[in-house]
């Protein structure tokens, strides 16, 4: 048969956790009890405010949300809160309609490089350079040959302003009408070759057709 166990008030009070009580002079507590009596007045319980550490400044992809800082686990970093993209790359603005290859040079040096390559190709007929430079200078060579096919004085002066050597311009205007008279564009040919030794840059031959 089950036995009935009686609980005393003192046993229940001893089992409960102690609570800090701020007592005023008019508050009266019952003897041997941690709880104020119903007749006591102006009893204030101390509220433990969570101590928030000052958050360090963070500049990331996501803005800092104030509610996310009240987490139970306070850590020095924000690895659990923010998603940081770090793949070793760099972010650049997109250049829509990019038509001018920069060739890792400022505008003045890039123009001088293309003028020199165009002069050498018209002088020797075939040169070896990188594929990027060959593709960039191709349109300038075609333009010089188009100017020579016209043969006017104005076109000759335009060619003299771009090609470095004057003798090449005169020879170009003398030979182009006979050589490319029936061809409408496509005056150059690019032939890929082995990469350059040292930096493994892709190389190519560019020649006149």
Automatic annotation (TrEMBL):
Pfam families referenced in this protein's UniProt entry, alphabetically: Ribosomal_L17
GO process annotations (BP): translation
Keywords carried by this UniProt record: Ribonucleoprotein, Ribosomal protein
Source taxon at top rank: Eukaryota
GO cellular component, one term: cytosolic large ribosomal subunit
Cited HAMAP family: Ribosomal_bL17 (MF_01368)
Protein family: Belongs to the bacterial ribosomal protein bL17 family.
Entry protein name: Large ribosomal subunit protein bL17c
Organism listed in the record: Escallonia herrerae
């Amino acid at each position: 048969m089950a036995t009935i166990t009686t609980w005393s008030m003192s046993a229940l009070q001893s089992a409960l956790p102690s609570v800090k009580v701020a007592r005023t002079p008019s508050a009266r507590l019952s003897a041997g009890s941690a709880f104020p009596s119903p007749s006591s007045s102006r009893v204030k319980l101390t509220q433990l405010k969570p101590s928030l550490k000052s958050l360090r400044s963070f500049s990331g992809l996501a803005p800092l949300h104030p509610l996310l800082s009240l987490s139970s686990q306070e850590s020095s970093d924000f690895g659990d809160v923010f998603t940081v993209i770090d793949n070793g790359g760099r972010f650049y603005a997109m250049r829509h309609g990019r038509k001018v290859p920069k060739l890792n040079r400022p505008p003045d040096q890039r123009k001088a490089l293309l003028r020199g390559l165009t002069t050498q190709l018209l002088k020797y007929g075939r040169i070896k350079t990188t594929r990027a430079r060959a593709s960039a200078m191709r349109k300038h060579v075609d333009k010089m040959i188009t100017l020579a096919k016209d043969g006017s004085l104005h076109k000759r002066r335009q060619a003299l302003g771009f090609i470095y050597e004057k003798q090449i311009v005169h020879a170009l205007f003398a030979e182009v009408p006979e050589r490319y008279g029936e061809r409408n564009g496509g005056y150059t040919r690019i032939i890929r070759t082995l990469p350059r030794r040292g930096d493994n840059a892709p190389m190519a031959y560019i020649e006149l057709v």
